[in-house]
Amino acid sequence: MTRIADLPEFDMADYLDNDEAVAQYLRVVLAEGDAGELADALRHIAKARGVRLMAVPKGAVAQPRQR
What we know:
Elements lengths: L18 H14 L2 H14 L19
Helix pairs in contact: 1-2
């Protein structure tokens, strides 16, 4: 019998390996209409594309750069 702990960890980003897969995933998420799921989907897509996201503290305000 297989134990849950022995199963490989699921990572949605592993399945978003082409533009059509990304588009289909977004269509499904947008059809659900849940903002939290959309935020998760965007993180999965960014990870699949190799984009690193930085956490921004809640309430943080970007300051203009001095030139």
